[in-house]
Amino acid sequence: MNDETPRPTDQTAPADQPGAAADQPVEDRVNNRSQKPTSDAFKRFMGSNWAPAEIRQDLPDASAPFAARRRKALSEQFEGERLVIPAGALKVRSNDTDYRFRAHSAFAHLTGLGVDHEPDATLVLEPVDHGAGDHGGHHEATLYFRPMAGRDSEEFYSNARTGEFWIGTRPTLGGLQARTGIRTADLSGLEVAVTKNAGAVEIGGVRIRLLRGSDLDVEALVDTSRINTGVDLEVSDGLDAQLTEFLSELRLVKDGWEIEELRGSVAATIAGFEDIVRVLPAARGHERGERIVEGAFFSRARLEGNDLGYDTIAASGNNATVLHWIRNNGEVRSGDLILVDAGVEADSLYTADITRTLPVDGTFSPVQRTIYQAVLDSADAAFAAVKPGLRFRDIHTTAMQVLAERLHEWGLLPVSVDEALSPEGQQHRRWMPHGTSHHLGLDVHDCAQAKRELYLDAEIVPGMVFTIEPGLYFKNEDLAVPEEYRGIGVRIEDDVYVTDEGAENLSAALPRTPDDVEAWMARLLG
Ligand code: GLY
Ligand code: MN
Ligand code: MN
């Protein structure tokens, strides 16, 4: 794509054109790859004779009432304080091309907005009198963003990052307000909105709390305001961290809308696993067969969702013992197992996180089946334990008990089961080095900033969604295990929804037992 149009800041003629400035700053040279007309005649012509933009009647998003309740909970927690939650900015991938935009999960949670929404936007919760805010809360929320420019504007045709001519339609102020139920305002008003009356509370200023790590420009704005008003930066860092923590904890229990989104992500992910089985014959024997598997899943993710929730692990043979194998450039060999850990992220940005370990030829060998069954038994024991009131950390304890016993039966543990399971031992972790469960939602590792007592040490409650994902990994180079075990890695990962009675396996429709996996593969491969 050649950007042939002028940009407002781009008045310097390219160096290979007559009149080029020899001392053109390097930061301007990004535009030198093409010629850009700058004449007034061109601007007049480009700015005229476009049909008016279609007037869309935007309706409220299904997420809007749920997001309103989340903002109310946030308001309850931080009465009297200004809360600033940026969506984040576009990120350069290479020179002047950007990654596809993906908003910070806290912003998505509080606005209900998903795919494409909305680079540079910031949600500001402005404190008002007690109970006088939105929905009876103590704040008024405003979404500051850059609305789509009119077709008579220079931005329309000249801005390759935001102009409709280049990237397609974007929301208007009225449209986004109708969809979210949040008042909207032009991004140009953000600086005043964030900084007005800000300052030390002791002298009557308004305290700002910022979600850090999302948008460096907004961080600079807040930090500058704090410095200018004599607010202690170290203390402010602590206050900001409390906001981050609370926003993470606010997602520990999912509402009905989130559960439906997760069900959709899981369904698309299961379809992606079916696609994987169908391409296994093509992957087998190809020098980069793992990429064929990865590509098949990615097609499904883009077709049914927004993207992958995380980079797919397509790990065949010994690569399955490399926990974060995302290089996916290995062969898929006949007789091996292939471990695939993949999740479709929905347009709402909720993601599934599922792992299946499949026999490349459709049939497990006896030793593969033995190892697989141990992992399955461990997962099933964890599932059976899950019910409201169980401590989150005890899911892992339950899964490890089964694996340690099995490793002991196989003669692999150098100590007793009890000694291995004691804090001083942990020898079984050589072959199962990761956690068994993590929360799942907008982030694959959701709620990661929650306090330990609300996560690992907490009792699970209805509405929580997390994974159960034990594994066993025997590396080729592991001389502590018999040769026949080496080069085998197995993980089985499912997504669990805690209900009043116990747990629902959201991904139960994807076969898990060795017999069911074989039958399912046989059916798909005809
Ligand atoms: N796919 C990352 C995980 O399972 O945690
Ligand atoms: Mn996981
Ligand atoms: Mn996973």
UniProtKB/TrEMBL annotation:
One of its GO terms (molecular function) is aminopeptidase activity. Pfam families: AMP_N (PF05195), Peptidase_M24 (PF00557). It catalyses: Release of any N-terminal amino acid, including proline, that is linked to proline, even from a dipeptide or tripeptide. It comes from the Bacteria. Residues 61-219 form the Aminopeptidase P N-terminal domain. Its EC number is 3.4.11.9. Residues 10-24 have a biased composition (Low complexity). Coiled coil: none annotated. Keywords: Aminopeptidase, Hydrolase, Manganese, Metal-binding, Protease. Its cofactor is Mn(2+). Residues 1-41 are annotated as: Disordered. InterPro entries: Aminopep_P_N (IPR007865), Creatin/AminoP/Spt16_N (IPR029149), Creatinase/aminopeptidase-like (IPR036005), Pept_M24 (IPR000994), Peptidase_M24B_aminopep-P_CS (IPR001131), X-Pro_dipept-like (IPR052433). Belongs to the peptidase M24B family. This is Xaa-Pro aminopeptidase.
